[in-house]
Structures are given as structure tokens and as C-alpha cells.
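Appendix B, example 12.
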Amino acid sequence: MAIPAVRRSRWGPENPATRLAGMPTSITAPMTSEQLDAYVLHVRIEDITRRLETDDAVSTTITTSADRDRRSLSPPPQYDGAGRRINTRHRRHRERLEQKRHELVRPAAATIPQYRAPAGYHTQARGRSPRALFEEKVYIPSRDFPEINFIGQLLGPRGRSLADMNAESGATIAIRGRGSTKEGRTGARGGRQYTDSSEPLHCLITADAPVKVVRAKKLVQDVIEGAVGTPEHENERKRRQLRDLAVVNGTFRDDEGRGLRRGEPAGVSCRVCGGGHLSRDCRGSGTTIAPWRRSKTRTATADPVDAACSQFLSEL
């Protein structure tokens, strides 16, 4: 007996498999294991995205008492500044779906060539951009070395050193954790609080490729090791930052090395002995009076008393 075909109605439910963007719903050719894995990732990501877009995250109705018994205990309620609860059952399940999708998008971007994240992914995956799929934390030993200003050496004058590190590595380096912001200020614009503000001081590195994360991690570790293992007066990075800060503030004076230059010889020679001093200061002449003044003194002093005084003074 033939099974009658189900009549399609415009008011009937639509099969979600037909809504996969750019994905065939029937596989007619053999596929490799890599292609099958990529297809499964696509299907799972699209399914979670559809559930998030249609707000079909979780069913709030409980059908039987058995379902009620299988439910886990709800956590204590949490409220925001406006008094709204932020950890409802629906929201907690939605966050779990977003986290699951993020865990699927990460291997998809690493294994599938020219993969593009689903639309709206950056607004749902904890504020990341669609390209920021890989992250790692590098903790700063601020408690072990409280006398070292790690944040200042990482940021540099007006954040220029950190911007140079981002450009060199291709990743985004951000300082997070306790002590990363001043007291009385929030860690983000619009009064939002970072979820890792209660963690120890660290650098959060995000990038779209693992090699960029490794490159940025090495740059951060080099700065930390240089600040810890190098004395302050020998730290070239800090010296360059102070120089750049003086240039930015307009107080820089390029006088490096001038104190080490030797003075030029004056070219003074004595007419009496030929030494490198003035003729009036020559000790070989037997008098400290200049020749031109001594000749004038002889002509002007005819009094024997004055001559005796002059001779006495010259002998002294």
C-alpha cells in the first residue's frame, strides 16, 4: 500500500533544513571526511543561529511532573542597576547557545577556507567582532613586583606603544583585570562592566588567526621580562617612552652626547715663553705686570719712592 504524500500548505510549518544558507539539503555525491566535518559544522552553526534569531532558545512550558523533576535548581536571582533580572532561565539558555556557537565558529574559521561568520555574530558573541575568534590571556605579575609599572610600559605615552604592538602582531591587545582602570571609572563606554574585571591583572589578546595570537603573546612577554629583569636606569623601552613623551609634550631637547664632547683648543700662546697661556700670566718673565703696562709704569713714575714701592711689589 502506497503511503500518501503529505499535502503542503502555505500555513503549515516550514522545514528548517530548507533554510540553510547556501547549503544543499541532499547529498548526492561522495564526500571526504573533511567535507563531512565542514558540512556538519555549517549545519550546527546555522541551526543555532536560526534558534537565536527566532527567539526559539528554550521552551518555558513544563509538560509533566517528570520534566519538572529533571530540571536543575535555578541560581540565585541577579539584577542590574534598573532592577531587571539578568539571569532568567531564558537568558541563561540563550547564553549557552551563544557560547556553543562560538565554540563551533572557531574551528570552522580555522579549517574552512574563506569562512564567514553568520550575520549578527559580533553582537551576540560577547561583544567580539566577527574576525576575533581566538583569544588568550597573559597574566601580569603585578603582585610579585608591585614597584614596577607594567601598565605604563605596555601602554606607553598616550597608548602609542600598545598601538604599535597591535599593528606589529595583527592582534588586539587589551589590559583587563583588577587595577586596569582608575578608581571611580568604568572599564568600558556607556557604563558597561567587563566580565573579567574581578580577575587578576592580565592582557587579553584576540585575533582571527592563532599565529597572530602567538606573535602578540611573545611581544607582551618580552615587555614583562624586560621590566622584571632589567634595572630601571638600563631599560631602553622606558627610555624611549620618556623620550617620545617629551616629544609629544613639546619639552624635548636633543642634547644627548653633548656632555661627553671634548672642548676645542683656544689657540692661545705666550709671547715670552711660547706656552699655552697669556703673556701677562707668564711666570718666566719674573713679574706679573704686562709688558705694555710695565713700560708705561717706568715712564710715568719718576719719583724714587714710587719706584721703590713698585720694585717691592714686584718682588712680592
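Residues 272-304 form one domain. The chain has ten helices and three strands.
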